[in-house]
Fold Jg12373 protein.
Amino acid sequence: MERSMLNIKKLHKKRHIKIRSATKIIDALSYAKKLKWKWAGHVARLTDHRWTKTVTTWRGPPGKRYRGRPCTRWDDDIKKIAGPQWIQIAQDRERWQVLEEAFTEEGS
């Protein structure tokens, strides 16, 4: 879509980064990951026991799981970058913002 906006063909051999900077369109995946990271930090810093924090830290019903790969949870990709204690790490805003760049660049 961005190539058609600038009327650039593959034959011109322009890199995607140059085209993205010319159109000034932000990547949807990195933007969504950035919003998810910010929301996770916000939820982790909640002091009262609201539903949002309770649901985020919920582990699911006890008992046997189905056969096969375990279902991915909402915070699994956050744990991959920040570690299993991501809620404690999110209390420090500066440290959390440093990890944000690693999280948004990981999937792009």
In short: Residues 31 and 104 are 8 Å apart (CA to CA). Helices lie at 2-6, 16-23, 28-44, 51-56, 76-82, 86-89, 93-107.
